[in-house]
Amino acid sequence: MSEFWSPSVRELTPYVPGEQPRERLIKLNTNENPYPPAPGVEAILREFPADHLRLYPDPESRALRQALADEYGVDVGQVFVGNGSDEVLALAFQAFFRHGLPLEMPAITYSFYPVYCRLYDIERRSHPLDDHWQVNLDAFSRDCSGVIFANPNAPTAHGHSREAISRLLQRVTNRVVLIDEAYADFGGESAVPLVAEHGNLLVTGTFSKSRSLAGIRLGYAIGSRELIEGLERVKDSFNSYPIDSLASAIGIAALEDREHFAACREKVITTRERTRQRLEALGFEVLPSQANFILVRHPAQEAAQLFVGLRERGILVRHFNTEVLSDFLRISIGTEDEMDSLVETLEVLCR
Ligand code: PMP
């Protein structure tokens, strides 16, 4: 603890991401994609002219934003890009959620949101999930500085329909509603089409999951021009060149290859459903998932012990040491072979 730190930094418990092990493990702990990025990405890495790196990148990241605008059927002025969606979220907290009222969110959701609340001195009002571990959209009110949740939610994996989101937006019209769609490509319904009617809706997305590009940091937001301008104001104040030239070229190459994208997504979804069936056969409860991970628990086995048992046998999953989630393991969907190993190992551990 240092006297030099701002009060909010003294209070801060930083977000701790899942372990990135050095040894070769079956890594099912941070929801990365098990398949490589689009082949066009390899070509960029081989052919990108080093001389381009001499110059600053386009401060407006126009080409990448245009590629995203084409993908989502919106105007380029409705797209914002940043270094991973974590950065985009941080800018959104600063731009939209400091009205002196609490920010509303589910009690169980992406654990970065409370960290940002601390960091930016924003009070938080958390609403419990419903009896099915789903985000309770009816709980959100107008009396707040904004609403934020992940859809599908993390780590519970359930996604609400666009219709349900639309009902929320008819009610909460006075503040920004931020929907984090980091996992929406794996079977969730994107809220982006609602942006046209709702100037207060901001949807964030990432290249880290469905585009297999967690190693470069690329995220984005889509919303009304008004909201995008708000983000640009904050961004320009501390990093006027958000995306480096190489990352932009890689992002565009990934967006261009629709076939590769669809094929990887289908494989992940098929493997997820197959894994679900096999784990249910072992007695696990598997929460419904529209994401590239599942949240599971066993009525007779301690999750913490299963975590250790898997780790000792070379398989890394996520165990959350919080009261509500301590019975569960969150398992990212890997390749078919990786999931076979997982199921076979759990079979042994649950005997
Ligand atoms: N939102 C959610 C719900 C996430 O789980 C993650 C990944 N940890 C992110 C955002 C951030 O993703 P990235 O910064 O890689 O885009």
TrEMBL record:
Family matches, as Pfam families: Aminotran_1_2
Keyword Transferase applies: yes
Gene3D superfamilies: Aspartate Aminotransferase, domain 1, Type I PLP-dependent aspartate aminotransferase-like (Major domain)
GO aspect biological process, one term: L-histidine biosynthetic process
Catalytic activity, as annotated: L-histidinol phosphate + 2-oxoglutarate = 3-(imidazol-4-yl)-2-oxopropyl phosphate + L-glutamate
Modification type N6-(pyridoxal phosphate)lysine: residues: K209
Residue ranges constituting the Aminotransferase class I/classII large domain according to the UniProt record: 25-346
Cofactor(s) the protein requires to work: pyridoxal 5'-phosphate
UniProt GO molecular function: histidinol-phosphate transaminase activity; pyridoxal phosphate binding
Xref: InterPro entries: Aminotrans_II_pyridoxalP_BS, Aminotransferase_I/II_large, HisP_aminotrans, PyrdxlP-dep_Trfase, PyrdxlP-dep_Trfase_major, PyrdxlP-dep_Trfase_small
Record keywords, A-Z: Amino-acid biosynthesis, Aminotransferase, Histidine biosynthesis, Pyridoxal phosphate, Transferase
Keyword set includes Transferase: yes
HAMAP family found in the cross-reference section: HisC_aminotrans_2
Quaternary organization: Homodimer.
UniProt family annotation: Belongs to the class-II pyridoxal-phosphate-dependent aminotransferase family. Histidinol-phosphate aminotransferase subfamily.
UniProt protein name: Histidinol-phosphate aminotransferase
Organism classification: Bacteria, Pseudomonadati, Pseudomonadota, Gammaproteobacteria, Oceanospirillales
